[in-house]
Amino acid sequence: MYQMVLHYSLREQVLNAIGSRIIGGELSPGDVLPKEDTLSKDYGVSRTVIREAVKGLAARGLVESRPKVGTIIRPRSDWQMLDPSVLEWVAASETNAEFMLHLAEVRLAIEPAVAALAARNATPEDIERLAEAYTQLVAAIDDEENWANADLEFHESIVAGGHNEFLAYIVRALRRPLQSKRLINVSLVQLLDDEDVAEPYESPADEVLSRHRDVYEAIVRRDEAAAREASEKLLTRVTDAL
To answer: Does the N-terminal or the C-terminal CB of the chain have fewer CB atoms within 10 Å?
Structure first.
């Protein structure tokens, strides 16, 4: 019988277990999912729980039911990649560096636009939150765990300042579930050695904080172009380092 995490409901346990098997490659596109009776026995749950878990997989694009065939594993191109559960399963199935690179590339395509919107739309309250978030970054530069939280809050405050719910959804979908799994807590300062520091910066910490400060200050100045450029430079640096 497969071991499952107890703090999830039975449905969530089975959903996570089968989803991880699919995304991890144990079950391949075109394979037929074992029948309800078999899965019920494997996981020690009722057929109703199995049925509900399979519905969850179907909603995420991982499987589909075909008459007279059964439940088929769908191609990766059909998966709902922004779904938090799917993101977690993909993250767990790939090397951390590979996943981080993919994530950084997506962020590079999106977050500079969000920074420009923040420069245009941020309220005084948004600016105050961003300032506090940057202060937290400075304080956390030598603390890996606190940096993860401070970095999340910094970027969350920029998203909030943009006041675009669609972009906010995309950015948060990419960050929140991964943060909870401690999969995006690698700081750029950890990726850089002293010899990798770009001019005119003096150390990894100096470069990382300066690049974040450039984004922060451009938003405070209401300079959309500068905010976009600073965010792009920061995220390009992350992508290059990965």
So the answer is: N
